[in-house]
């Protein structure tokens, strides 16, 4: 497969296509520290080697599940250098915990394609459903689907009308993995009294900054996140995972006894976010069940942007699955 450096465009793709695999990378402590300086999450196992060892039994500190996702997404941009925006993530499964020092490698496959409806005075584009698989030390550790909206090179839509499908029903049992069953969560500090269905607003808003730093750290090659002239807006579009990462940092403050993230049931980018935006966060427990020495909980997290005198605008709808004491 021959793909020019500025591609692929929408019409260069077809269902079943496997993209060239980017170079493997080692998720080391330097990378983790840089990520922490940009995002500031508070997961104890990610920050404290002693607690991570006591809970997991591993001599290596847990890699942030957020950083794992963003490194994988960055690698998958081999398919989306010409993305306009990413519409959603679906059925994100972290198959086992990943620890610092492991080597990650990611493959990206086209599953389905759907031409967007033509609109006057708007360049043609199309939706591409991608399946992404990441291995750590040659073992699968992460599988998920994402749907980017991709530019066309020319003026003729190729005629793809695949059904992009719906995500699976939310079933917490499906997130049970033996890797976590014997974790000693009693070593985690903190607790909360948040009840099922209760909406909790994070009292601290957060500012989006160092957006370029995050896309460079994660090898994200989407031009729209680096080059304002490639953006459909008047400025660079912030990588959607940056908003997710700040939401996960908020989640770690509201639920301080969280051990890790097991996956995302869904994640929709509702509206664009830009450098310097001020974000607020709210979280609600949708479902929960006992597992091992703790609980698995589905959290509905929503993010809003605050710009000057405008009303807050909804920008992210996200359902992470957490493992908590």
What is the approximate shape?
globular
CATH superfamily: Hotdog Thioesterase
Order of helices and strands: EHHHHEEEEHEEHHEEEE
Oligomer: single chain
CATH class: Alpha Beta
**Share of residues in strands:** 25-35%
Number of distinct helices = 7
If classified by CATH, what would the architecture be? Roll
Q: How would you classify the helix and strand content by structural class? A: alpha+beta
Please give the number of β-strands: 11
Q: What low-confidence regions span 5 or more consecutive residues with pLDDT below 50?
A: none
> If you consult CATH, what is the topology?
Thiol Ester Dehydrase, Chain A
The gyration radius over C-alpha positions equals 19 Å
Number of domains: 1
Distance between the termini: 48 Å
Percentage of residues assigned to helices: 10-25%
Describe the largest sheet: 11 strands, antiparallel
Task: Give the overall pLDDT as a whole number.
Answer: 96
How do you describe this structure in short?
The protein is α+β, with helices and mostly antiparallel strands and about 325 residues long.
Would you kindly provide a written description of the structure presented here, covering whatever features stand out?
The N and C termini lie far apart (48 Å). By secondary structure, the chain is α+β, with helices and mostly antiparallel strands. The chain has helices at residues 29-39, 44-47, 49-56, 65-76, 178-181, 211-217, 240-254; strands spanning 25-26, 83-94, 103-115, 125-136, 139-151, 199-201, 206-207, 258-269, 278-291, 294-306, 313-324. The mean pLDDT is 96. α1 runs antiparallel to α6 (211-217) and α4 runs antiparallel to α7 (240-254). It has 7 helices and 11 strands. The protein has one domain: Thiol Ester Dehydrase, Chain A. A hairpin with a 6-residue loop joins β10 (294-306) and β11.
């Amino acid at each position: 497969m021959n793909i020019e450096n500025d591609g692929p465009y929408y019409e260069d793709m077809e269902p079943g296509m496997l993209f060239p695999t980017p170079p493997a990378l080692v998720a080391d402590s330097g990378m983790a520290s840089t990520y922490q300086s940009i995002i500031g999450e508070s997961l104890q196992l990610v920050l404290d080697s002693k607690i991570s060892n006591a809970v997991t039994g591993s001599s290596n500190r847990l890699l942030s599940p957020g950083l794992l996702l963003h490194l994988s997404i960055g690698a998958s941009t081999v398919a989306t250098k010409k993305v306009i925006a990413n519409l959603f993530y679906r059925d994100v499964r972290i198959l086992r915990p990943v620890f610092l020092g492991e080597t990650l490698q990611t493959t990206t496959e086209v599953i389905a394609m759907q031409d967007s409806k033509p609109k006057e005075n708007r360049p043609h584009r199309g939706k591409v459903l991608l399946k992404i698989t990441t291995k750590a030390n040659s073992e699968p550790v992460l599988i998920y689907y994402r749907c980017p909206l991709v530019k066309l090179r020319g003026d003729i839509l190729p005629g793809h009308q695949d059904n992009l499908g719906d995500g699976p029903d939310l079933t917490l049992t499906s997130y049970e993995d033996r890797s976590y069953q014997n974790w000693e969560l009693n070593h985690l500090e903190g607790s909360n009294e948040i009840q099922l269905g209760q909406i909790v607003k994070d009292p601290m808003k957060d500012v989006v900054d160092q957006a370029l730093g995050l896309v460079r750290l994660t090898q994200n090659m989407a031009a729209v996140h680096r080059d304002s002239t490639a953006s459909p807006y008047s400025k660079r579009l912030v990588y959607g995972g940056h908003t997710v990462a700040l939401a996960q940092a908020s989640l770690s403050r509201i639920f301080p006894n969280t051990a890790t993230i097991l996956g995302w049931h869904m994640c929709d980018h509702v509206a664009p976010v830009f450098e310097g935006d001020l974000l607020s966060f709210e979280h609600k427990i949708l479902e929960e069940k006992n597992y091992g020495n703790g609980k698995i909980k589905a959290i509905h997290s929503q993010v809003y942007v605050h710009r000057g005198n405008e009303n807050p605008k909804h920008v992210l709808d996200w359902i992470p699955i957490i493992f908590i004491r």
